[in-house]
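lol so apparently i was supposed to do this last week
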Amino acid sequence: MRRAPTWPRHAIMLAVCLLMLVPFYWVIKTSLTGENIYAWPPSIIPVNPHLFNYVDVWYLIPFPRYLLNSVIVTIMAISGNLLFNTAAGYALTKQFPGKRWIVLLLLSCMLIPFQATIIPAYLITSWLGVLNSWLGIALPMLSTIICIFIFKASFEAVPRSLIDAARVDGLSEWRIVVRILLPLSKPAIATNVILNFIWSWNAFLWPLIVVRSPDMQTLPLGLARFLSVMEDTTGALFAFVVMVLVPGLTIFLMAQKEFIRGLTSGATKG
Amino acid sequence: MAGIRLSGVRKSFGDVAVVHGVDLDITDREFVVFVGPSGCGKSTLLRMIAGLEDITGGEIAIDGRVVNELDPKDRDVAMVFQDYALYPHMTVFENMAFSLRYRGVARAEIRQRVEQAARVLDIGHLSQRMPRQLSGGQRQRVAMGRAIVRDPKVFLFDEPLSNLDAKLRVQMRTEIKLLRERVATTTIYVTHDQTEAMTLADRIVILNHGRIEQIGTPEEVYETPATVFVAGFIGTPPMNLLPVKLGGSGQITLGDRTITLPESRTRVIAGMPDVLLGIRPEHLIWHTGGEPPLLSGHAVVVEPLGSDTLVSLDIAGTPVIARLPPRLVRKAGEAVLLAADPENLHFFDRTTGRRL
Ligand SMILES: Nc1ncnc2c1ncn2[C@@H]1O[C@H](COP(=O)(O)OP(=O)(O)O)[C@@H](O)[C@H]1O
Ligand SMILES: [Mg+2]
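anyway here it is w/ adenosine-5'-diphosphate bound
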């Protein structure tokens, strides 16, 4: 029996990929030239490429400050998620009275859109006195329910006997988590890091609400301000966009193998 | 080095009781095997001794100290698991050194103890491998090495050989026995395989449905099984059990055949209405005249094993197996007459299952 040739399938997939990449290419191209995006006919190859737009973004607006804010808030969010989701995920692998209700409560909370919780979240943040601070921006993103379940599934896939062996070997519960479960849950860790990076890096609504002073603004807020302050600066705007995107893409590329394994592990390991 | 005492140990999971009051005294350096069918509570009992399961009732003492409330790490026991439970992200060396790190043993001593255990088990050359790069037999050795380096008061084994293929299992069994000579630590070994139990144990504890059926040396449980269950569990093929009726003056009726036994053998069963006669396949002998035969019938299945031949008969509706010298019976359908030394007959109460 002859197999159908694979090249038509590959050609179609390649075409779809190229199509998806066109907007990215356009952004990069425009950021390098500053040409009018409505020009007709459009030039495919950048004409006289230069990096002045990037320099402009770095110096004309407080880009370094936005970047610092975003990096710190994102690091806080990711650390918080790793700490709290590990602890909660491990707790949920155990049997305890009322566990069913807690799981049900967590699952039903996932159905509530963030927008609906903004007012209470704001009141709590204000009550804690952390409005307009890094901690305040990171606060609602310190733990994510879906990521708790990713850890739970990953921990449950670790054979019981390994945990028993560790216990006989003399490890406390915390050490079992840190020395046995986490090293065996790299895909879950990668998934947590990437998802929370994306959510925190791109967060717009919540920072908009809690941030009061310009020097606490994160990159997405900076982008919005940039749009309203500057005019006719397509090139600089697109340079800004590229500078916001690059860290995320880098992290994803570094961790994508583990990330994809983490998203599918619940399905394959049961 | 330590003895272990279990008194009235019980275990329930929710409403389901799985261990019903186990009393057992294990002396220092003894090698005790828990044997019984799957699901009889062997692992549960072992895990309670290790501290991995709560004790529902009763008391467990190691080295004279009640350990009911102690965490596994404070009981000074080492355990070998059925699936070996090697840490997949650590090398063989790290696996073996792991527990010592948490017991404040100095680096140099850890290295020395791990190397010594590796030498005993002949796995020194594997020390930098990861567990996934090892064969089943090698993993098994590493799992034992991890227990040996600890030099604990007690070794606990939970079916350590059941994941190996038949040949390797026999080989490892011999090695465990050799290891015993060098490392004489109190050991509890759980298995469902009666051959393993017989070959390894100083004493065997036979469990059934969460109760002890019998405790004894391999010879005792083989020669004087305390219950029908033990009779059927120990020995391959197991003991034949035939329902018999009692006549007067030392006569027993077996199907349509009546045999007279010496009075010394029948005294114990006098007046019992329902009795099971037990006889091991290897104790049935080819009838050569003299006394009337004990059993007569036709061969149903003939299985030559080389050294001897297993012959199955049907005696009044009960299957019976005899282990006979080769070539006496060649094919199914041949008539077979069998006798037995009255000393080799066992009697059990049919209602309680107890030995008479
Ligand atoms: N964690 C548990 N929860 C409920 N029942 C259990 C649990 N562990 C074991 N059992 C039950 O206890 C009985 C004895 O199990 P186990 O000790 O593992 O048997 P064995 O090792 O002799 O095969 C079985 O019927 C099993 O279903
Ligand atoms: Mg078991």
